[in-house]
Amino acid sequence: MALFEVPGWTVTTPVAAADSKKRKRTAEDPEPPEPTIDLQKLVKKHAEGDDASSTSSSRTQRVKELGKSLVKKSADRKRQKKLEALEEKKKTISLPKALAASEKRSSSASSSSSLARPTKRAKRDHESDDKPLPTIPEEPTTSLTAMQKSMKQSLDGARFRLINETLYKSDSQHAHEMMQKDPKVFEEYHTGFRHQVQSWPTNPVQHYISVLSKRPSRTVIADLGCGDAAMARSLVSKGLNVLSFDLVSDGVYVIEADICDKIPLPGSEPKEGEKSDGQGQVVDVVVCALSLMGTNWPKCIREAWRILKHDGELLIAEVASRFTDAEAFCSVITSIGFKLTMKNEANSHFTLFELKKVARSGRTEKEWAGIMGKGKMLKPCEYKRR
């Protein structure tokens, strides 16, 4: 029995190759087929060929181990081939092409289809960008849409209400300083005022223009708190002399003055213990159309008395909702030196008063302080927050 003879196995002598010289297989040579091993057939064949020793557990165990080793070698060889194929594929991957010149890129980009994928924008460093942001010029109101015009009117109305409430709740000195620092406030206020007037059933200024236009020519009228001087613009052409005063001058009709401090017109008051109409006055009619706004408004009435001639007229139009007690209001005015001749409460928005100047006695500073301190009798016009 041969040394390596196993029952059921046959050993044959290998045939010598025609060319005994060994040579390495090149990449062009085809890969030899991988031997396949059928483990079940191998065990069956061994069992059939050696019945005598089939009970030998050691021999069967050796056959199983041999089969397992052959399967493992076959799996390792396949795994190695896959790794070699992967390495070869990596070597054959082409490198990216170099970018074309800028001119070529621009020409190719222009000729490319609109469906071409857009190039990514480069990231910008905002901190190092010194270029200022573009400014958006203001569009003229003529180019605004209907909705934009409506929104602008709402903003203008809100601005007007804010200024209006400030004027009612502060004294005339504070209002004067505010207008001097920013004259645009005065313009914004009266722009809003003109817009608000459109919703009123009547306009007190237009009422007085209609009434005073019937007065004799050369009648001197002092419009205190004139706004945009609508009265002067209408009556001067009819031969009436209208002197317009407000916190900001327009350079044409309006004279700058704090009407609750000192009106730049001639006139005097009687001395203490003396009763008279004063001297030097030139004004026939004083008009206060919605102008008793500051908390020190009684001083305006005192100035009106000082500049009016004997039997001169004082015309007052005020918002009806400001009065808590109209009789008390009239009492303050008559104590300064006037006589009430007419009160008109027919209008739902405004109350009209007509008064005439009368002689009075001079008062002490303490007496004047008591009268001037009654300005809070008129409530300020307040608006709901929106």
Automatic annotation (TrEMBL):
Its EC number is 2.1.1.-. Residues 97-117 have a biased composition (Low complexity). The keyword S-adenosyl-L-methionine applies. Residues 1-151 are annotated as: Disordered. It is an enzyme of class 2 (transferase). Residues 140-151 have a biased composition (Polar residues). InterPro entries: RRP8 (IPR007823), RRP8_N (IPR042036), SAM-dependent_MTases_sf (IPR029063). Pfam families: Methyltransf_8 (PF05148). GO terms for molecular function: rRNA (adenine) methyltransferase activity. One of its GO terms (biological process) is ribosomal large subunit biogenesis. It comes from the Eukaryota. GO terms for cellular component: nucleolus. Its main location: nucleus. It is found in: Nucleus, Nucleolus. Keywords: Methyltransferase, Nucleus, rRNA processing, S-adenosyl-L-methionine, Transferase. Residues 82-91 have a biased composition (Basic and acidic residues). Belongs to the methyltransferase superfamily. RRP8 family. S-adenosyl-L-methionine-dependent methyltransferase that specifically methylates the N(1) position of adenine in helix 25.1 in 25S rRNA. Required both for ribosomal 40S and 60S subunits biogenesis. Required for efficient pre-rRNA cleavage at site A2. This is Ribosomal RNA-processing protein 8. It comes from Roridomyces roridus. The lineage of its organism: Eukaryota, Fungi, Dikarya, Basidiomycota, Agaricomycotina.
